[in-house]
Amino acid sequence: MSHVLPLILALFCLACAPRARVQGVLLSDDQGRLELVEPEGKSTRVHLTPTSAALTALEECTVAVTGPKLGRGVWARDWEVLTAADGSAPFVGRLELRGSNILLHDRQTGSMLMLSPESAAPLAPFNGDIIMVIGFVEGPNLIRVMGWRVLEDLP
Description:
The chain is mainly β. The chain is built from two helices and eleven strands; from the N terminus they run H-E-E-E-E-E-E-E-E-E-H-E-E. The longest helix has 13 residues, at 4-16.
């Protein structure tokens, strides 16, 4: 019983913590802990949750993390990629193969984007994974892929 009380107290504090949106460049330290470095130079520790595991693959990207804030840390319940490491605005979402089409369910806009077949061919093995695509709009809901990064693999 003595081990249960601190756990219940910690969960209660986390549930009652104020919700915050923190944005900055995501970096990891020597132990692999994630930190957001805000434009003013302030550093905030990012604690991962099951819905934010993809953040581990976004080092050097500018992201916005939303969740309960306790002390110098934020528990990442939701996240958004603002800029990729190269400064471009990426498309992030779950990849889906439909016939010969490669589609991306974009988290940022909530829309379904089709990736240009010739530029997206290397992405075919990542069906179902969360991918960050760097590219440009070629036509209505059509993206030419210039670069990509797998953020979360299916188990």
